[in-house]
């Protein structure tokens, strides 16, 4: 049987290990770092976690994270209110914003259809999206979901759901990442790159 640390340090390791993307070794490394950190540094982490739990919420309109609802994007009069970009998670909003190419609104689903994890359409923020589309203002919905099986299933579901509404439904182009080699591209990505080719 593997040896475990005693008491508080093991509880801290277990707490860090329960976070996504942190394995047992990473959790142990962080826990021991916190053990040697100054009281001030430890308190900053405690305060940051407490503050985010107290202040941060989800926008009542789009589902993005914010401290005041509606969020700054939803109330910005400079944004194009005729286009809504649908994403899976709030972090996807920041990814698109960093491109500085998009000036419309967003809608965060809060996940993707995934039967293996018992996540169906009813578990996603789809009803609020449909409510937003009842206004004459929205002319296009961009489906910007992850290019994986769950994202594709959700894109297909939403395309069929939104199709009859008479609103233009588009999805992100997909292809080869800059700086990669063709030999490392999977067949689906390479096939999409060929299908979405344009004049040079």
Automatic annotation (TrEMBL):
<dbReference type="InterPro" id="IPR023627">
    <property type="entry name" value="Rcmb_RecR"/>
</dbReference>
<feature type="domain" description="Toprim">
    <location>
        <begin position="82"/>
        <end position="177"/>
    </location>
</feature>
<keyword id="KW-0862">Zinc</keyword>
<dbReference type="InterPro" id="IPR006171">
    <property type="entry name" value="TOPRIM_dom"/>
</dbReference>
<feature type="zinc finger region" description="C4-type">
    <location>
        <begin position="59"/>
        <end position="74"/>
    </location>
</feature>
<protein>
    <recommendedName>
        <fullName>Recombination protein RecR</fullName>
    </recommendedName>
</protein>
<keyword id="KW-0233">DNA recombination</keyword>
<dbReference type="InterPro" id="IPR034137">
    <property type="entry name" value="TOPRIM_RecR"/>
</dbReference>
<dbReference type="InterPro" id="IPR000093">
    <property type="entry name" value="DNA_Rcmb_RecR"/>
</dbReference>
<keyword id="KW-0227">DNA damage</keyword>
<dbReference type="Pfam" id="PF21176">
    <property type="entry name" value="RecR_HhH"/>
</dbReference>
<keyword id="KW-0234">DNA repair</keyword>
<comment type="similarity">
    <text>Belongs to the RecR family.</text>
</comment>
<keyword id="KW-0863">Zinc-finger</keyword>
<dbReference type="InterPro" id="IPR015967">
    <property type="entry name" value="Rcmb_RecR_Znf"/>
</dbReference>
<keyword id="KW-0479">Metal-binding</keyword>
<comment type="function">
    <text>May play a role in DNA repair. It seems to be involved in an RecBC-independent recombinational process of DNA repair. It may act with RecF and RecO.</text>
</comment>
<dbReference type="Pfam" id="PF02132">
    <property type="entry name" value="RecR_ZnF"/>
</dbReference>
<dbReference type="Pfam" id="PF21175">
    <property type="entry name" value="RecR_C"/>
</dbReference>
<dbReference type="Pfam" id="PF13662">
    <property type="entry name" value="Toprim_4"/>
</dbReference>
């Amino acid at each position: 049987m593997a040896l475990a640390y005693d008491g508080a340090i093991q509880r801290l390791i277990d707490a860090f290990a329960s976070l996504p993307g942190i394995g047992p070794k990473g959790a142990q490394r962080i826990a021991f770092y916190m053990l040697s950190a100054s009281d001030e540094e430890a308190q900053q982490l405690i305060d940051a976690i407490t503050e985010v739990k107290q202040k941060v919420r989800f926008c009542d309109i789009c589902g993005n994270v914010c401290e005041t609802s509606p969020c700054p994007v939803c109330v910005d009069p400079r944004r194009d209110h005729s286009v809504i970009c649908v994403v899976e998670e709030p972090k996807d909003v920041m990814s698109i914003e960093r491109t500085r190419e998009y000036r419309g609104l967003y809608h965060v689903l809060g996940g993707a259809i995934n039967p293996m994890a018992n996540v169906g359409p009813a578990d996603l923020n789809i009803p609020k999206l449909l409510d937003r589309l009842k206004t004459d203002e929205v002319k296009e919905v961009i489906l910007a979901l992850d290019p994986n099986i769950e994202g594709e299933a959700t894109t297909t579901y939403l395309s069929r759901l939104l199709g009859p509404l008479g609103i233009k439904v588009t999805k992100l182009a997909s292809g080869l990442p800059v700086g990669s080699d063709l030999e490392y591209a999977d067949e689906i990505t390479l096939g999409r790159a060929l299908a979405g080719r344009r004049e040079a």
